[in-house]
Write a structure and sequence with these properties.
By secondary structure, the protein is an alpha+beta fold. The protein has two domains: 38 residues; 49 residues, HU Protein, Chain A (Irregular). It has three helices and five strands, in the order H-H-E-E-E-E-E-H. Strands 1-2-5 form a three-stranded antiparallel β-sheet. It is elongated, with a radius of gyration of 18 Å.
Length: 89
């Protein structure tokens, strides 16, 4: 499902216009990115939890040249699905 399909279904389910549903999705994206970049978690009831996890520095390999490279540590977004989502799938 892409953003246009999601916006259309959200509008149908909630009674919003497609324009309002699009603005809601844009605002939700901004809020989630802001919360995660500040180190917080986002709990979506019935869907799951978005959080960040630190991935340690490691040594990788450039597939083109075969040269070893250092991949610096970074925070990566993670998702843990809710039990209700897992049961529905």
């Amino acid at each position: 499902m892409n953003k246009i399909e999601l916006k259309k279904l959200l509008a149908e389910e909630s009674g919003l216009t497609q324009a309002d549903a699009g603005r809601f999705l844009d605002a939700l994206t901004v809020v989630v990115i802001s919360a995660l970049s500040d180190g917080g978690d986002v709990n979506l009831l019935g869907i799951g939890k978005l959080h960040t996890k630190y991935v340690a520095e490691k040594v990788g390999r450039n597939p083109k040249t075969g040269e070893s490279i250092r991949i610096p540590g970074h925070n990566a977004p993670k998702f843990k699905p809710a039990r209700s989502l897992m049961d529905a799938i």
